[in-house]
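#data-curation
PF: Archiving a pair of folding outputs for the training set. Convention for this channel: one message per protein, sequence first, structure tokens after, nothing in between. First:
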Amino acid sequence: MGEVYRAHDARLGRDVAIKLLVRDSEPALQRFLREARILAQLQHPGIPPVFEVDQHEGRAYLAIHYVAGTSLEEMQLSRTRAAKVVRDAARAVQYAHEQGVIHRDLKPANMLVDAQGRVFVLDFGMAKAIDAMPALTETGEILGTPAYMAPEQAQGFAADERSDVYGLGATLYRLLAGAAPYQGRDPLDVARRVAATPPEPLPEVDALAGIV
């Protein structure tokens, strides 16, 4: 739904991430503005804050704290380190839940680790308030990333806090196994597999019991 660029705020002397709205439609704009409102209410070290929401040449944009880091999708970690990283991400997600917000699209690409080892949860564009009305969607659109979505989401049911917990677990699975829990010909095929069958179990995960 958005393009993200790194930019420099010359007035304040800081780098920011600029997220531009791509889809020119009222539902897309409302979802974009909802993301801004959600980010504005979340104040946690693991969630980059929003600085500004505005329009430029007719396109809505968000200015967000820039995180110089690497996404979990690009990282190879030891089992212990992987568990600790996902644990830190889970703390940020727990905070969001305590504020009444669910993410709904947790996956390795939406989690960054910076040079100091700090973990950040990004992209709340799919998020919604737990007690909100149904999400602003377009007909036939799959909300979320099928390989990491919970079975109830793949079956068309509403997501809740447990769906985020599943997304964290699926992310840890990817870090431990080197591949997402599910593969398929296309996103719809993956969603069908998620809805119908459990993932292949991972061997030798008992050693992580004291970490996660």
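PF: Second:
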Amino acid sequence: MDNHDKSLYRDEIDLKDLFSALWRGKIFIILVSIVSVFFASFHLQSAERKYTIEYNLKPVGETKTSPSLSGLGGFASIAGIQLPTSSNNDLNIFKSLITSVEVAEIIFENKKIIKDIFSSEWNASLNNYSRRQKTKAQTLVGNVKELLTGNKAANYVPPNPRRLAIFITQNVQINEEKETGFLKFTSETSKPDLILSLIIDAARASDKIMRQRYVDFSIEPLAFYKEKLRTARSREHREVLAELISKEEQKLMFASRGKHFIAEPYINPTISLYPTAPNPKLILTLSLLLGLFVGAAIVLIRHAIVKDNS
């Protein structure tokens, strides 16, 4: 028998020995798996059930400069007239405003929704917000963290627009669909009705801010265009200015009277009928696999130690 055959023979013997050790420790492996599944089940009993929210918005009106204006762009530039820029970025600005402090300041005027969001900090006896009472475990973890990092616990900050903006950022995901250009708001939460109300309020506040900014900004350009029209001599010059004034006045009228300015809902918001988190099947399956792995590892380690000692 050459060295190669001897090596294969030893590997075969080791493999048999490995499975033999696992077979002898099967009861222990099964017990560890049962304990693992039990703890997973215990976790599921107390875990918070979360539901998925979906809220969709579509852009209002056209999102690009009209063809007639685009065709006159060269002449307008020569004449010293600045055409309105494309509003493709309006939706991106709208999206960014959702998680801004500006929007949070508007939402913060609704004291009821703020109290619901930060309900764990509301102290009924003081009729005000205060730091939550920490459990012994939280205090211990905080002390260990401070010891390891050297960072002391931050002073308590009552709910304010900045904290609300952070809360929205952490709990609401906003994505723009590439095919349609629509905005999709999603959130997985244990308080779906509350978070949905928060999303709707944030969208309204963002739309309100952009509407007011446009109204404030459009007054000066309109006056400039009308003054230019009064002094214009060439027919082409007057056509450009008349088109500009018409478009700006239409948009200004829409901003003053329209219900939605930048984005509007196109289907009703949805809340999942059943909890989407935690996933019981996934957690129980993973706990079973973890139990089998840990049990097998302990059996093999014990077998290796006993074998070396003998």
